[in-house]
Design goal:
With 373 residues, the protein is mainly α. The protein has a single domain (2-176, 196-372), classed as Growth Hormone, Chain: A, CATH 1.20.1250.20. The protein has 16 helices and no strands. The longest helix is centred in the first third of the chain and has 30 residues, at 37-66. The radius of gyration is 20 Å and the shape is globular.
Length: 373
């Protein structure tokens, strides 16, 4: 039961974005008279990421000092309140304000859950749990994306009411989840945190999310341009393809990790994702978009659990909160940077895909040269 609750609670991170991604065109229409609405509507998706970036190091510190469980419980509570507040927003600026608080709540949930998994599972079991965590997040993304797109076809504001659903998790988490080992004291002495040990992993997470977040940010608008008249539920279903194939490969992460190093399991899937972006651009129609999203999902399903296991394998109960707080910061810093990347490549998936393949190839060659010395 404990493992299941931790895994389901982890899916709240994907609910945060994928639920409202299909609604972005509707939000743009609702607030069409607002100056700079094209930028502001994308910020509805990226504002939580900005506040996750700012808050995650602090959240990680609190998780190490006072325990993970209380951090997660507070996070879920604020997640529900700030997420559902979007239903009442009368302007895009009110919507953005609620999303800012929402970002802090997401940070608490994913940092606390990942640290709890690391505390409770080690070795191959950690690989298995992190693979399952990514699979649950992926399959959760399918559900949330489809539901969000379906509801958006009726009334876009109703989508924000989905954020009330984690209330049941709040109760289950409080009952079934305990801190591992001995009970924590109110104040736990902290050991120093060696940032240099995690620098390479954090950089990889930032680069990955900078490119990947083109999918939820750009695909809804891209599909509207190449498939005139496409409705929001179909957009939601299409975006869910990434989550589905990502979840499938995540299930097999443990077996694949037994054969490859952490570095290889970042570089090779990143090349696969780049190839997926090139396929999307190759022919501007729905079929090639779907094919590209499938390939992208296959790569994404390996690299996300790999980065989490990588962090967990070099962390312990004294620093896992800060370690995953740093990883969360870099994941979402990449999301914040993603709109700038989109503008730089003019929303062109081909340019982004080529950049991903070239960067990965350079990293791979550099790693080979290092091994041959």
């Amino acid at each position: 039961m404990k493992a299941l609750i931790l895994l389901i609670t982890s899916t709240l991170v994907i609910m945060a974005d994928f639920t409202i991604a299909p609604v972005l065109p509707r939000i743009k229409e609702a607030f069409a008279d607002t100056p700079n609405i094209d930028l502001l509507v994308k910020m509805v998706l990226t504002t939580p990421a900005l506040f996750i970036v700012v808050s995650s190091p602090f959240i990680g510190y609190l998780a190490d000092k006072y325990g993970r469980k209380n951090i997660v419980l507070a996070g879920v509570l604020f997640y529900v309140a700030s997420g559902a507040a979007g239903y009442l927003a009368t302007s895009v600026y009110e919507l953005l304000a609620g999303r800012a608080i929402f970002g802090i709540a997401i940070s608490a949930v994913i940092t606390g859950c990942s640290a709890l998994i690391t505390d409770n599972y080690k070795g191959t079991e950690l690989s298995r749990m992190m693979g399952l965590q990514s699979a649950f997040i992926g399959f959760g993304g399918i559900l949330y994306m489809i539901v969000g797109g379906f509801i958006a076809d009726f009334y876009w504001r109703n989508t924000f009411l989905i954020y009330l659903s984690p209330l049941i998790l709040l109760v289950l988490f409080a009952i079934f989840i305990d801190e591992p080992g001995t009970k924590r004291k109110t104040r736990t002495p902290l050991v120093s945190f060696d940032l240099r040990k995690y620098a390479k992993i954090y950089l990889a997470a930032f680069v990955l999310m900078s490119f990947f977040y083109m999918i939820p940010l750009q695909i809804p608008f891209y599909l509207k341009s190449v498939v005139p008249g496409i409705n929001n539920s179909v957009i939601g279903l299409t975006l869910a393809i990434v989550s589905f194939f990502s979840a499938i490969t995540s299930i097999f992460y443990k077996s694949i990790k037994n054969r490859l190093s952490f570095s290889s399991l970042f570089i090779l899937p990143f090349i696969i994702m780049g190839a997926g972006y090139i396929i999307i651009y190759y022919r501007p129609d729905y079929l090639f978009s779907v094919m590209g999203l499938i390939v992208t999902g296959l790569g994404m399903g390996l690299v996300i659990p790999n980065l989490r296991v990588w962090v967990g394998s070099i962390s312990d109960m004294t620093n896992a909160g800060r370690a995953f707080g740093g990883l969360t910061t870099c994941f979402y810093l990449g999301q914040v940077f993603s709109p700038l990347l989109i503008n730089t490549v003019n929303g062109n998936f081909s340019i982004a895909g080529v950049l991903m393949v070239v960067m990965s190839s350079v990293f791979l060659i550099g790693r080979s040269d290092k091994l041959n010395r």
